[in-house]
Amino acid sequence: MFVHDIDLNLNLALGERYKSETQKARVISEAWTERNAFCCSCGGALARGRTNARVLDFTCVRCNNDFELKSTRGNFSTKLPDGAFRAMMARLSDASSPDFFFLTYDVQSSCVTNFFAVPTYFLDSTIIEKRKPLSPDARRAGWIGCNIVMNRIPEVGKVFYVRNREILERSAIIETWGRTTFLRRETSLEARGWALEVLRIIQSLNVPEFTLQRMYEFETQLKHRFPRNNFIRPKIRQQLQVLRDAGLIVFKGRGRYAANFGGSIERAQQRDTQSTI
């Protein structure tokens, strides 16, 4: 049996003095995260960010990695409202921008239901949706916000600590995070976008194995996404090589590949389930 230091219970009383549901979610989830979460990059402890920081909630005391927390009761909708569109787009090209924590909780049971991290480099221009400007009679007339389109984030980019109330193993969380850090080193937004788009396509196939020929069927879609590239098929092969080197897919020979997105997380879930039987 694995020993976990994550307690799913929430202190809902912290939100009683607030009327806004958003404020309640913020104080309740921040307190839980401070008490239970750790840095998925190095395993270090987290400290609250500066009180005047605009997007920074937690910082790792060991490696200084930063995280911004988003939370809600129930489940996240397909589109999660965020801050200013222009500021968010600027974050995409800044490798030092905070990564994200996402937390959902159930009020009835006073428990966290899901908690996962998403590296900032898994967000690209197709995930950030521009909202309409605020009306002229609004307090911030003309301000333009954005939405995070949650279902555009590849599943391999969601590093779960808690999934459907199941707590995952600490070492598996850190290992899973490390499998995609090669994307942080990619400074070109277009190059990173290629990797993300190919990951989304592979995920959409929803099959244990796929072929290079099957990937070629998405040539028109990829040409639309990257109109300046006139060598789509060679680029597909290049990206499959990149994902293979990162261990996210496995080359089976003769143009066949297998997705390896779950990795240690799925194994940890299976072990955790078995240990409770």
Question: How would you describe what is shown here?
Answer:
- This protein is α+β, with helices and mostly antiparallel strands and 277 residues long.
- The chain has two domains: 12-169, Dam replacing family, catalytic PD-(D/E)XK domain (PvuII Endonuclease, Chain A); 189-265, Arc Repressor Mutant, subunit A (Orthogonal Bundle), CATH 1.10.10.
- It has eight helices and 13 strands.
- The protein has helices at residues 21-36, 85-92, 170-178, 189-205, 212-216, 219-225, 232-245, 263-275; strands at residues 46-48, 58-60, 66-73, 79-84, 99-106, 111-118, 128-130, 145-149, 159-163, 166-167, 209-211, 249-253, 256-259.
- It has a seven-stranded mixed beta sheet. A three-stranded antiparallel beta sheet has the order 4-8-7.
- Strand 12 and strand 13 (256-259) form a beta hairpin.
Strand arrangement in the largest pleated sheet = 1-2-3-5-6-9-10
User: Which sequence of SSEs, written as H and E, runs from N to C?
Assistant: HEEEEHEEEEEEHHEHHHEEH
Chain-averaged pLDDT: 89
CATH topology of the largest domain: PvuII Endonuclease, Chain A
What would you call the shape?
Answer: globular
Strand content bin: 15-25%
The count of domains is 2
CATH class of the largest domain: Alpha Beta
Tell me the span between the first and last alpha carbons. 10 Å
Question: Under the CATH scheme, which architecture of the largest domain would be assigned?
Answer: 3-Layer(aba) Sandwich
Computed structural class = alpha+beta
Radius of gyration: 20 Å
Tell me roughly what share of residues is in helical segments. Answer: 25-40%
Largest sheet: 7 strands, mixed
CATH superfamily of the largest domain: Dam replacing family, catalytic PD-(D/E)XK domain
Low-confidence stretches: 264-277
Number of helix segments?
8
The tally of beta strands, per DSSP, is: 13
